[in-house]
Amino acid sequence: MVKSSNRDEAGGVKKGPWTPEEDSKLVEYVDKHGRGSWQRIPKLAGLNRCGKSCRLRWTNYLRPDIRRGKFTEEEEQLVIHLHSVLGNKWSSIATKLPGRTDNEIKNYWNTHLRKKLIRMGIDPVTHRPATNLNLLTGLSSLLSAGGLGGTPSHLDNALKLQADVAHLLKLQLVQSLIQVLTSSYGTPNMDLMNLFRSPLLGNYQPSDLLQLSRQIAGGLGGSLSLQSSIPMTPNLSILSHYLNNIGLQPTTPEHSFPSDAAAVTASDASRTEEPSADISNVSSTNSIPASSSTHPLVSASSETKNIDLVQSSDILCANTLASEPFEACWDNLMKLDTHDSHFGWKDIIDEMSWPDAAP
DNA sequence: AACGTTGTCAACCGCTGGTTA
DNA sequence: GTAACCAGCGGTTGACAACGT
Basic and acidic residues compositional bias: what residue ranges (predicted)? Predict the structure, then answer.
């Protein structure tokens, strides 16, 4: 059902900027008769405009409840948050900002907020760290520089939160890398495995990698209430080693990992989403199947989860401040891309399956 | 002062989906 | 069931302003 939107043009309706006279005619008519049918309004109001143009002019400019002027920090924060949840659903976002039109929000996003996020190393479309390595470099330096001192404004908090999410997503990326090493196509990639066993990245053994992959997925997700929790294995030494390396040592009992060995059992195995990956030949010491799917640490797929995210911001921010070791590890990973011709991290990253974007 | 570049934002365009005849 | 009507949405454009050289 495609409609001709140029129907009115045959009648030679005026286009372009509205004059004050046209504005007053439209306002006067709507004040007197209400909105009614936009198609009939031009004729009834004595305007040589199409109904569409009248509706747009009214909703975006002449409406009495329009709020004009600079966006406040609270509004900016809200737009960023809502965009991370809703995507480019400008009209939906506008319903949460009284007095602001979808057009105005869209323009403000494209001219201000989008660029701001890019400067933060955050992909403004996905609200995740950009996989573009140049942008990641900027993000990395931003994170390691701290850049979080002073008394942050609301907007700073919003952006800081995005950066924290970026940090967590890097962790997810590392987790995904581990999964590539241990389970891609059922055959362990020994070259990559050897790389992870280098002192640079912590001398991980294949069995460690399997453990770590699960620990990161279940542990961080559970501790941050961002993902349905997966019971942890009791192998705290490995986890501790890993957490030390990435600077995410749990700091409070609330965020520590359970040591109850009973937590790791059949119920854990039953959560494995893709049990087809054959890992038995990778690990002789680990009898627990590793999840071959990527567990997103952060999901923007529902408003509820984002509320959780906001509530967890204190934890996230605290962890970010201790992220230097991880950043060093990350930088080393990225350097290897240029120094080792056998493979490219960029290629792996490109192949990585990220969780779905916001609906 | 003149010119080119970049940023901003109002308005337009093409399209979709709901409603009605 | 079908076609036309209509409101609304998101992407894009272009005029104008601001800024830099």
Answer: 1-12
Q: What is the pTM of this model?
A: 0.49
Positions in chain B where some atom is under 7 Å from a protein CB: 7-19
Interatomic distance A155 CA / B17 C1' (Å): 36
Hey, what are A206's tokens? 């294949």
- The yes-or-no verdict on residue A343 having pLDDT over 80 is no
Question: What's the CATH architecture for A16-62?
Answer: Orthogonal Bundle (1.10)
Per DSSP, helices labelled H in chain A are 20-33, 41-45, 51-57, 73-86, 90-95, 102-108, 114-119, 133-144, 154-183, 190-196, 206-215, 221-223, 236-246, 266-270, 303-311, 313-321, 324-339, 345-351
pLDDT band at A303 (very low <50, low <70, confident <90, very high): very low
Write out pLDDT tens, residues A248-292.
443 333 333 333 333 333 333 333 333 333 323 333 333 223 333
Buried b / exposed e across A210-237, counting CB within 10 Å, b at 16+? Answer: bbbbbbbbbbbbbbbebbeebbbbebee
Identify residue A149 by its one-letter amino acid code. G
Closest CA to A33 of A20, A21, A46: A46
Burial (CB < 10 A; 0-12, 13-18, 19+), residue A149, is exposed
Task: Look up the protein residue whose alpha carbon has the minimum distance to the C1' of C9.
Answer: A91
